[in-house]
């Protein structure tokens, strides 16, 4: 069901999340949640991917706790001056369903995509070329700079540094980030020279993508059709 | 929690955020040349790595936004750096969202860019380390508070029922603002001693 072609997959992800975020009734939102769960299970993400949902649920928990008290309506539970309303609880449930649906869609459609392959797809979708180049280059150097940061942290640990809530910690982290930035600028100069040496003249080659197959189009049509159906059901 | 996930904000807020973010990104792209793209990309990767450091605050811990520092070092290029960073966070960690990319980019980048433009020139020019540290701390701390204010405003504009969440969120930004102020001052001090050119957007 999920298109293998990255362009269609990205487009589908945007359209699905957009549709999910505009649902206004609990019924369609729960239906969308069920579909998203099926989609996520079909994508077979590993455990690390599932763990991502926890970040999202922090926000949801905050809303679930406060919304019942903030929306006026029939009182359900009274805690001193605060009273939770049925309407508020329904509102919180709707939001939780929508937020979780969107997170599951992202998990299913983009969770297993290697970011470096996205460059070509973003380019094919006509995003401004300098922006795509920036994305690809950032991703390329993230691994290197992450390693450098790890080495510097290890060196700090070897000198018995322990992060606490004090000025020494903040100054040390400031020096760490400053050092990373100085090395990054050095690297930027070297990379720029190397690119110039190889005759870079402002045209960055992005891999060409094969045309989407009929299967990809079917999957895309199915997914966007379901999203449109959910929206229609919601508005009726 | 500077990244608002999908599914919470109202459509007008999402559209407004997307339009503003597109404007900021277009402005930044107009000012950037081929060399600056490489510099911006490698600095973006560094800011991203820096924001992964978890800094303890009492029993809890915070992650830096570094938007003020980006504003000083990249100027309007901070819009690009933040946008790319948010896309990567969504892809690598599932943080934030797709429909909220525009809103989140504006919320994080705008205060940094404005403060970087306002205080950056004095930070670069001054020879007094104390004044430089004070201004850098101001850029770091105020940009975090600005982000907190914008996030709260986005929530409050979407629905009056979000007001309690907005004020709880705003309170969680205070310790981050303090830490960010101290660390931004330290980073700017380090760069001024080691490589002052680093503080200039188009060096």
TrEMBL record, chain A:
Pfam families: CbiQ (PF02361). It comes from the Bacteria. It is a multi-pass membrane protein. Keywords: Cell membrane, Membrane, Transmembrane, Transmembrane helix. Its main location: membrane. It is found in: Cell membrane. The chain crosses the membrane at residues 60-80, 92-110. Coiled coil: none annotated. GO terms for biological process: cobalt ion transport. CDD domains: EcfT. One of its GO terms (cellular component) is ATP-binding cassette (ABC) transporter complex. Belongs to the CbiQ family. This is Cobalt ECF transporter T component CbiQ. It comes from Paenirhodobacter ferrireducens.
Automatic annotation (TrEMBL), chain B:
GO terms for biological process: transition metal ion transport. It is a multi-pass membrane protein. One of its GO terms (cellular component) is plasma membrane. The chain crosses the membrane at residues 7-30, 36-57, 64-95, 101-123, 135-158, 170-192. InterPro entries: CbiM/NikMN. Its main location: membrane. Keywords: Cell membrane, Membrane, Transmembrane, Transmembrane helix, Transport. It is found in: Cell membrane. This is Cobalt transporter CbiM. The gene is cbiM.
